[in-house]
Every structure is written in C-alpha cells, then in structure tokens.
C-alpha cells in the first residue's frame, strides 16, 4: 500500500487537561453568526414597542437608572417577555433536535407526536371550566404535558421502546387530547373560547418574570443533560445494533433523551403555549446552514431563540395597535421555510 | 376473487351481510333515538309515508333523516378516502387530512364568515369545500415539485407546511372576529348536527363522483402496494393512478369535511379495521375488498358515535368527532401495541 | 489489543424473539486468533447467534462468556473495546462523511471532553489506509458505491480496535470483485493484526476459502463444525442446505468447492442420486 496523504481534519488538542475534539469551522461560524443576530434582535426588541426607547436608554433602564417610566417598561414588561421568548425558543428547538436525531426523522418533532397537546387540554380545560385548582395555567400546562408524555412512553413500552412505536402512539394520544380540547372549546362560552384559542396558538403577551424564572431554572438543569447526551446520541443515529456494538447503552440513552426532550417542551409550552413549528424548523434550519448531517444541538437552540424573539418582534409591530400572538407569525414564516427545505432537498431523506 | 377460495365464499358473504345488517340497524337507531325517543313502529311508519303525529313527522323528516343520510354519505366518503390515502402513500399512518384538506376547509370556513361576512348557516359549506380543494391541489403540486417527483415524504412535508400556514392564518382571523370564532369552533369539533336536507343533497354529487373514482382505482392500488417498480412493470400508469386517487380523496374528504368538520381520524382507523376483518374472512389485502369494506364500516362508526353523543349528555350533544377520536384513540393504540410493526 | 487470544464461548445457548426458539441449546467455542465462518440456510439462526455473541440479544437460557466472564456482567464500554459487530445492511444518516463515520467507531474509547486524541487519530487514519478509502474521507457515505460504502463501515469497525470482530453477511449486495476485496481485507485484519473474526456468510464457497474454522447450522443447532475440508461434504451440504452437490477442490485456493447438481445443465456422466 503506497503512502497516501492523510486527510487532516481541523482539530484541537490540549496537552493538559487531556481535552480534544474535531473542529467544524462552518458550524462554529454559523453558531457565532446566529448568536450575534439573536443579540441584535433582542436589543431591537427591547427598544421597539408602543413606546420607542433609544438603545442608550435601554441600557440605562436595564441597570436600573434613568427615567423611571422606562425602567418600568424595560424591566417589568419587555425584558421578561423577551427573556421568556428566548428561553422558550431554546427549549423548543433543542427538544426538536433531540427528537429528530433520536428518531432519525425530521418529521418527528415533539409537537407532532402529542407532547404539546396534553398541555393544551389541561390549560384549555382550566380556561373553559373557569377553574385551575389554584395552580395557575403555567403549572397546569406543565403537568398536562408531562402526564401525556408519560402516558405515551408507558403505552409504547413493550420490553423496550422503538422510535417508531413512540411516534405512532404519540399520534394516537395527541388525537385524543386534541378532540377533548375541541370539545371543550365548542361547548363553552365565546369569551373563554377566544382566550383558549389565544393560548393554543402560542403567545408571549403578558408574559412576565413569573413565567421566565421557572423556565430558566428548568433549562439550567435540562440543557446540560441534553448536551451531555449529545455524543451518545450520535451513535444512535447509526441504528440500535451498531450503537449497541459501539458500547452505547441504547435504552438508557433513549430514555434520557426522551426525558430531556419532554421536559424541555413541557416547560416551554407551559410558559408560552405550543408555538407552532419552532421545534420542527429550527433544528432543520440549523442543520442545513451548518452543513452537518444531524441537527446540531447548540446551533439549533440559538436558532430557536432567534426565531421566537424575531417572530415576536414582527408580531408586535406588524399591525399598529394590535399585538398578534407569536405563534401566528412562526406558523406563517415556518411554512415557506419548510417548503424551501422540501424543494431544495436533493435526496429523499430519512423521513417516512 | 383471489384467495377467497380458501375460506370459501361463506366468510366473506357473512362479513358483508353482517356489516350491512349492522349499518341498517344503526340507521334505524339514528332515526329513533335522540332528545325525543321515537318508538320503532312510528319510525317505520313515518318512513312508509303514514302520517304520524306532526311532531314525530317533523323530527323524522326534517331532522333525523337528513342527519342519518349525512352520516351515511360522509362516512362512506371518509372511509374510502382514508383507505385510498393509505394505499397511495403506502403508509398505514396516512389520514386524508395529510393533503391539507382539513386546514383548507377550516380556512374556508373562517374566510366565509369572518372576512366575507356570510351569515347564513349553510353558506360557509361551499367555501369550506373550495378551501379544501385548493389546499390539496397546492399540496399535491408542491409534493410533486423538484427532481425526485412525488414521494410520500415530500407529500407529507408539503401537507404539514400548507396546513400550518393555513391554520395560522385561520387563528389570526378567529382571534379578531367573534362570528368567525363561533362558526369555526363548532365546525372544528366535527358534528352531524344542524344540517338540512338541501346541504346533504348538494354535496351528494361530489361524493358520488369521488366514490366512483375511488372504486375504479382499486385494481391499480393492488399493484401499487407491491412497490412502484413492480407496478410499472405490471403495466400500471403511475401518474394516472396518482392523479385519479388524489382527485378522489380530495373530492370525498373535501365534501365531507366541509359539512361535518374535520373528522379525519375516521379515515385513519377504519382501513385498519377493514384490513383486520378482511384477513379474518381470508380475503387478504385486496383493495377491491378493502375499499367497499371501509365504505361500509366508516358510516357505521360515524352513526354510532353520533347516536352515542346524542344519548350521553342529554340534552346537550357531544359531537361525533370528539367521540370518534376519544374512542378511536385507545383502539388505535391497542393496535399499535399488539402488532410487531417493523421499523420503517 | 488487550488479549491477543480472547476466549469467546457460548454455553447451552437458547435464543428466541417471541415464543418459538430460534437457537436451541447451542455450545460454541470460537477459536482465538482465527477466522470462523457460520453458514446455513435462511432462518437457521446464524444471524441471531451472532447478535447474541455481541450481546445485542439476551439469551432465554444459557450464556456467552468472554475470557471466563459472562457477557452480561461486563461493563458496556469495556465490552465495546474488546468486541465489535458490524450488522447487516447498516444505514448512515444522509450527509455523514466517511471520516465522521470511521470516527464514530472510536466512541468506546472517547469521552465527551476527549474526542480526538492521538490514539483516535492514528486508529482512524490506519483504518482508512487499510481499507484504501483515504481519498474518500471527505465524501458523504451515502454517495459512495456499494463496495466503497461497505469498506467505510469496515473501517469504522476496524477503528474500534477490538480483538474480536463479528461480521453479519459483510458481502451481501456487493459485486464479486468487491466481495473478494472485502474478504481479503478481513483476512488482512486477522493475519496482520491477529484479530479473531467470526463471519456469517451466505456464499458457501467463499466461506470454504476464507475460513479457518467452519460452523454449519440448521434449525438453530450446530450440525457440523471444524476444518472446512472436514465439514463440507456432499452429505453435510445436502443436510444443511437441502442441496445435492459434488464437492471437489478449488484449483486456485485448494479449499473445498461445492458444485450444485441442478435439474437442468447436469452432464450425463454425473450420477443423479
């Protein structure tokens, strides 16, 4: 065998501590670019609104100085709203990346397989029946989401689970939850129906620190878990048998991924309702921009944050005098993005 | 007819007879039961033209007969289109809503009521139908675009995209217009109620045409089930079959959904029941049987759900669509658990 | 490699997926440092046996031992460093490059903070060179031809650096030149690096040529085992494969050559029964 030039991938290797890894320049560049873009959108979001506040005044208000009216608007209204939007975007996108990688199917986003519908039924029931047991909509939404996820997993368990079975049963459970929701909305009063539908479409209106803080805590726990599982997740992509042969504890990793994915989507939905499309499109956008063969977790999360905060900015400013729910904008924007992905794809893909 | 020789003619005949009898019984029950329970004797009499009390006549002819007829034809439409959809996409999970018909229908409803201000109870039906048709045409064209032609994945993705777009726009309208909100939320639950004979007669031709197209597809669908290469080798013109099939699904589902709302879970579950029954009767997965069986089973389920909905929460009704999803869901899950479905 | 003569054996192994056993009460000792081929008709249990040897399937009864320790008791990571399996028809996600695929083979040796150590690098490059796909390293796996793709998967298994390598039908769907290519490559792994190889093969003549040790299975049991010349006789072939044949000697390799007796195209001089 003649000596050939070996391909030199870009890598970094530290001597001490023994840290090393492969570098993917395009992925890093895209991630940084998206982070910068997100930062800019956040700044604009804080500045723009019914009262335009200049960027310098924004900075002052964040620090607590300057005009007290500005401080109130920035600190009590806009900051929590933008923060919630950012965190919800991160949660949805990361959850989507996990599920899509785990099931090797870009169509298997958590809002397709029934995880958000459980939250919806719980919250809509509370709104329509006018009673929330003293728990508040956010907690109810969380409990509903977790309960339906648990139900799906339990029903899919037969000595282990497969991605396919989880999807199928998820669809069944989501149909049932959706029909219960439809029934409640049809049966109740007009005013409650409007409130319920407003929540169901995905909404950041009126989100304050009460929503942001629990979400932030949940993310602080779940995001490291999700990222830590990332390495093992990549062997799962090669199939259960190959992954098992490579020493990946397949059932445990899948369970961990599901828990993290479910937790992320449940907390996100509890805070802002099921914002359409983010968990499906953000990982796909991140993957195609970065040129990787799988949805890159960190970049997907940043993309999700950008999408939600950006859409909320548009939703607030599109129609003067009205604040549209953010879910409408993500739905309207997400569809062309998805169609663009569809038309551009050269290969049939691993879905379906 | 293929493998029926093995089980003889007895089981298939028994199956057909049983289903038909069951359906007839359900029709009778649908005419008899409700907020006012009419004894069977009077039902039969009213149907035969004998004049019972004016209340009974009114209930039977103005309310129950149109409602039952609607259940029958909408059920046939949804059952057939579900079986067709699963055969065309070779995907046992496909439901007719995959083509975007339900989102299109809903959008049509809110446009009619919210934007165009149509006040009449029945005017929105035509817009719903038009919306459903337009949406599925768009989805089909998008699914076909690009280099690889029509693939099930692209069709599903296109369906998701178009549905999401339309439902976002629908939400936008519904949140700003209370008439649209009210009409939409009742439509969305899926119900046989509040329709009159005129509406039923109006959608009947579309469902009839769709049914004919669907049944005509059946032999080609058997070949398609063996894979596209084999089907082409057997002389089937794939493009034609697909167009025919999609047209049939669109007509059938669009018409049904426009009137009774998005009860597409029926189209998902019924073909599986039909397949299980066909297997019991020794018929195998033959679409020349599966389509008619689906057409018999679906209206039965729909009427049963409607009757149950009328009886459970008197005098308020639970919508048939809700009951079907609620009862069909556990059945579907049980089916998924029992079968050792291979990884796709 | 930790142990150049690993002792892999199955004792009283019964394997089943649902109720019906696929493999019954099977005993097998895999000769260390040799190439073993498992042959048999379809659905005789050979792939199932291989999966059990790789701990991808839990036995209903009996156990598999590696160097005296039950597979069940070995930590997953340690097992993956000593025993690797390449299943049949593996699928890589779209767009995954060859380099990334081969690097995944190193995952039993990697941690989340150490993903490209010097050992990883040299193992990956050595695997790419040995399978002669170095210049394909940047290409997506799904864009390669069948033969190239299979070599990429074998490179991944090689990079794993295990002393035992199990291969389930590594030559299916390849044309003849690529089949020989892959089998020669596997032989290199054994002769040059001393790895113990167990392969399920469907081509009996290839199995005869390349195997040091042959295992013939039928209906979940071992019917014959040993040196190919001893195992492959006309009687055994008829028993295991339900195929009448003549067994002669391959003029190129000197190993047994099975020549089927068919209904047509059989010379007059050949005895028909």
Assembly category: heterotrimer
Tally of DSSP β-strands of chain B: 0
Question: What would you call the shape of chain A?
Answer: globular
- Calculate Rg of chain B over CA atoms: 20 Å
Helix coverage percent of residues of chain A?
over 70%
Structural class of chain A: mainly alpha
Tertiary shape of chain B: globular
Spatial strand order of the main sheet of chain A: 1-2
- Helix-residue proportion of chain B: over 70%
What amount of the residues of chain A lies in strands? under 5%
Biggest sheet character of chain A: 2 strands, antiparallel
The chain pair with the largest interface is: A-B, 58 and 54 residues
Low-pLDDT sequence parts of chain A? 346-352
Strand content of chain B: under 5%
- How far from one another are the termini of chain A? 43 Å
The rounded distance between the terminal residues' Cα atoms of chain B is 30 Å
Key descriptive features of the protein:
heterotrimer; B: 344 residues; mainly alpha; 14 helices; 0% strand; disordered C terminus; C: 273 residues; alpha/beta; six-stranded mixed sheet; four-stranded antiparallel sheet
Protein architecture, described:
The complex is a heterotrimer of chains A (352), B (344) and C (273). Chain A has 352 residues and is mainly α. Chain A is 71% helix and 2% strand. Chain A has 14 helices and 2 strands, in the order E-E-H-H-H-H-H-H-H-H-H-H-H-H-H-H. In chain A, strands 1-2 form a two-stranded antiparallel ribbon. In chain A, helix 2 (55-63) packs across helix 3 (68-103), helix 3 (68-103) packs across helix 12 (278-290) and helix 5 crosses helix 6 (163-187). The longest helix of chain A has 36 residues, at 68-103. The model of chain A is unreliable at 346-352 (pLDDT under 50). By secondary structure, chain B is an all-alpha fold. Chain B has helices spanning 4-7, 10-32, 40-48, 54-89, 101-115, 123-144, 152-176, 178-189, 197-224, 228-233, 238-260, 265-280, 287-312, 320-338. Chain B is globular and about 65 Å long. Chain B starts with a helix and ends in a 6-residue tail after the last helix. Chain C has 273 residues and is an alpha/beta fold. Chain C contains 9 helices and 12 strands. Chain C has helices at residues 46-53, 76-82, 98-104, 118-130, 146-159, 176-193, 204-210, 228-231, 234-241; strands spanning 8-16, 21-30, 35-40, 61-66, 69-70, 83-86, 164-168, 196-200, 213-218, 221-226, 245-249, 256-260. In chain C, a hairpin with a 6-residue loop joins strand 11 (245-249) and strand 12 (256-260). The radius of gyration of chain C is 19 Å and the shape is globular. Chain C starts with 7 loop residues before the first strand and ends in a 13-residue tail after the last strand. The model of chain C has no long low-confidence stretch (mean pLDDT 91). The chains are: A mainly alpha (352), B mainly alpha (344), C alpha/beta (273). Chains A and B meet through helix 6, helix 7 and helix 14 of A and helix 7, helix 8 and helix 14 of B.
């Amino acid at each position: 065998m003649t000596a050939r030039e070996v391909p030199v991938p870009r890598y970094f290797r530290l001597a001490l501590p023994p840290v090393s890894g492969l570098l993917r320049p395009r992925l890093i560049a895209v991630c940084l670019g998206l982070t910068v873009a997100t930062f800019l959108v956040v700044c604009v979001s804080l500045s723009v609104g019914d009262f335009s506040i200049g960027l310098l005044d924004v900075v002052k208000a964040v620090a607590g100085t300057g005009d007290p009216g500005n401080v109130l608007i920035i600190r009590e209204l806009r900051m929590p709203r933008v923060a919630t939007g950012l965190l919800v975007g991160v949660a949805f996108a990361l959850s989507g990346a996990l599920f899509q990688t785990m099931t090797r199917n870009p169509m298997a986003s958590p809002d397709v397989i029934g995880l958000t519908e459980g939250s919806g039924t719980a919250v809509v029931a509370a709104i329509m029946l006018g009673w929330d047991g003293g728990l508040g909509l956010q907690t109810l939404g969380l409990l509903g989401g977790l309960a339906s996820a648990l139900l799906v997993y339990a029903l899919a368990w037969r000595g282990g689970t497969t991605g396919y079975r989880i999807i199928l049963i998820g669809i069944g459970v989501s149909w049932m939850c959706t029909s219960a929701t439809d029934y409640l909305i049809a049966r109740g009063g007009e005013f409650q129906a409007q409130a319920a539908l407003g929540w169901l479409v995905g909404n950041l209106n009126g989100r304050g620190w009460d929503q942001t803080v629990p979400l932030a805590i949940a993310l602080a726990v779940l995001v490291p878990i999700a990222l830590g599982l990332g390495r093992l997740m990549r062997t799962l992509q090669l199939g259960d048998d190959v992954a098992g042969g490579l020493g990946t504890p397949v059932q445990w990793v899948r369970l961990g991924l599901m828990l993290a994915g479910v937790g992320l989507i449940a907390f996100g939905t509890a805070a802002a309702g099921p914002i359409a499309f983010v968990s499906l499109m953000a990982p796909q956008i991140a993957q195609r921009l970065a040129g990787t063969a799988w949805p890159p977790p960190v970049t997907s999360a940043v993309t999700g944050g950008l999408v939600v905060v950006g859409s909320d900015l548009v939703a607030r400013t599109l129609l003067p005098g009205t604040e549209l729910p953010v879910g409408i904008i993500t739905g309207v924007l997400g569809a062309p993005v998805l169609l663009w992905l569809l038309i551009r794809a050269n290969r049939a893909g691993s879905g379906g | 007819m293929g493998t029926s020789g093995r089980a003889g003619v007895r089981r298939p005949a028994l199956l057909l007879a049983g289903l038909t009898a069951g359906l007839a019984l359900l029709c009778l029950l649908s005419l008899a039961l409700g907020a006012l329970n009419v004894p069977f004797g009077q039902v039969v009499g009213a149907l035969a033209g004998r004049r019972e009390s004016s209340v009974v006549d009114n209930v039977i002819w103005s309310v129950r007969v149109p409602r039952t007829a609607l259940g029958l034809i909408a059920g046939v439409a949804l059952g057939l289109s579900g079986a067709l959809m699963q055969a065309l996409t070779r995907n046992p999970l496909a439901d007719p809503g995959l083509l975007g018909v339900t989102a299109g229908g809903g959008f049509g409803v809110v446009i009619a009521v919210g934007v165009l201000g149509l006040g009449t109870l029945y005017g929105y039906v035509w817009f719903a139908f038009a919306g459903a048709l337009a949406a599925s045409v768009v989805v089909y064209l998008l699914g076909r675009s690009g280099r690889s032609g029509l693939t099930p994945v692209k069709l599903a993705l296109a369906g998701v995209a178009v549905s999401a777009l339309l439902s976002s726009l629908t939400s936008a309208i519904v949140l700003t217009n209370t008439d649209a909100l009210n009409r939409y939320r009742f439509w969305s639950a899926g119900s046989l109620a509040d329709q009159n004979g005129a509406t039923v007669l109006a959608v009947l031709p579309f469902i009839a045409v769709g049914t004919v197209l669907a049944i005509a597809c059946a032999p080609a669908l058997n070949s398609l089930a063996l894979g596209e290469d084999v089907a082409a080798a057997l002389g089937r013109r794939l493009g034609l079959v697909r167009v025919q099939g999609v047209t049939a699904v669109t007509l059938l589902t669009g018409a049904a959904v426009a009137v009774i709302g998005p009860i597409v879970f029926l189209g998902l579950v019924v073909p599986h029941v039909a397949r299980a029954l066909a297997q019991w009767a020794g018929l195998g997965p033959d679409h020349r049987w599966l389509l008619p069986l689906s057409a018999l089973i679906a209206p039965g389920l729909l009427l049963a759900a409607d009757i149950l909905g009328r009886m459970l929460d008197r005098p308020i009704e639970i919508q048939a669509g809700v009951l079907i999803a609620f009862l069909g869901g556990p059945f579907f899950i049980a089916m998924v658990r029992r079968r050792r479905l291979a990884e796709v | 490699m930790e142990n150049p003569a690993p002792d892999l054996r199955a004792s009283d192994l019964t394997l089943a997926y649902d109720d019906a056993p696929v493999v019954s009460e099977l005993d097998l000792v895999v000769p260390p440092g040799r190439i073993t081929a498992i042959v048999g008709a379809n659905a005789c249990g050979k792939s199932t046996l291989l999966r059990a040897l790789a701990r991808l399937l839990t036995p209903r009864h009996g156990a598999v031992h590696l160097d005296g320790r039950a597979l069940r008791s070995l930590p997953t990571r340690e097992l993956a460093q000593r025993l690797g399996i390449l299943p049949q028809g593996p699928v890589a996600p779209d767009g995954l490059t060859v380099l990334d695929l081969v690097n995944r083979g190193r995952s039993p040796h990697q941690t989340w903070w150490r993903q490209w150590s010097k050992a990883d690098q040299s193992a990956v490059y050595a695997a790419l060179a040995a399978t002669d796909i170095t210049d394909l390293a940047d290409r997506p796996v799904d864009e390669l031809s069948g033969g190239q793709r299979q070599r990429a998967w074998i490179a991944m298994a090689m990079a794993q650096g295990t002393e035992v390598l199990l291969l389930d039908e590594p030559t299916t769907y390849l044309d003849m030149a690529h089949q020989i290519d892959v089998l020669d490559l596997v032989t290199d792994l054994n002769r040059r690096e001393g790895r113990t190889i167990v392969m399920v093969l469907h081509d009996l003549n290839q199995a005869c040529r390349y195997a040091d040790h042959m295992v013939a299975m039928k209906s979940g049991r071992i019917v014959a085992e040993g040196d190919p010349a001893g195992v492959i006789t006309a009687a055994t072939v008829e028993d295991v494969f339900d195929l009448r044949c003549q067994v002669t000697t391959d003029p190129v390799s000197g190993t047994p050559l099975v020549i089927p007796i068919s209904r047509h195209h059989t010379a007059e001089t050949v005895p028909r029964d």
